[in-house]
């Protein structure tokens, strides 16, 4: 993992840049400000900008930036992302994340996920403990590619920690850990797999344990699990929302073998307040530990966004100059 820790002078400068931007834009509409935030990111301390550019060029699997400013009087962890949105919780921290993220890529959003917000709130919600979404807590989130179902899924997933008193870990596994035997590896490079939207996207029909067949009825893409450079391939997989093409038992065995090896190679990354991790969504799959929520305002709270290295490919796909994907 590549990691940069801001010194106190750099931290103060990042806070100053964020505060000045918010003072000039009193109504927080980050989707409208995305291009301006990208320009403003050039004001960040040169050390962190050089680090991020070098890490991007090297395709580092996980890129971390620590000692980012977080309000000393941070509001309690909201009980849901809906409440966080309504109350405008931790706006400055959202901006700090977008400033750092904009050096690596272009943030974007989904129309059917958290109301199309550019930055999501990740916090446990009552009634969602066992869901396969970031609002869960007692259900482990299986290692997965973020938004595995879509051609224009992010190149990076960004997670900025605001609060994590229980040391809840983010699990990560790199594609280099996959050493499936030759014949099965060839299968993984072939378009023999279906990729479905996960439950964080508002799609119908809903996929539940009681009605698992509903997953097969969702819109999906058919593609390969491994793709790109032969000597160092990229990865696309989500055990809960990827399946072989119907009747392809060989593809099923290959996918299961890859999933087992990736799970065995997984490691934990525990983020502390003021630390952001940028996970390469082509080289790394990620998940989350289980934990017991208290719902007392002290639970784990992250801000999250996704970025592409080239926003034009989303423009081509959507046929509009929009950062919102459907």
Compile the SSE list and pairings.
Blueprint: E1 2-5, H1 8-24, H2 30-40, H3 46-58, E2 62-66, H4 81-87, H5 91-104, E3 106-110, E4 120-122, E5 141-144, E6 156-163, E7 170-174, H6 182-188, E8 193-195, E9 221-223, E10 226-227, E11 234-235, E12 242-244, H7 249-264, E13 267-269, E14 276-280, E15 284-288, E16 301-308, H8 312-318, E17 324-325
Parallel strand pairs: 1-2, 3-17
Antiparallel strand pairs: 2-14, 3-16, 4-16, 5-15, 6-14, 6-16, 7-13, 7-15, 8-9, 8-12, 10-11
Quote the distance from N terminus to C terminus.
32 Å
Q: What Rg is obtained from the alpha carbons, in whole angstroms?
A: 19 Å
Estimate the strand proportion.
Answer: 15-25%
What is the string of helix and strand elements? EHHHEHHEEEEEHEEEEEHEEEEHE
**Which structural class do the helices and strands define?**
alpha+beta
What does the overall shape look like? globular
Beta strand count: 17
Largest β-sheet summary: 8 strands, mixed
Helical stretch count?
8
Uncertain stretches of 5 or more adjacent residues: none
Mean pLDDT: 93
Helix content: 25-40%
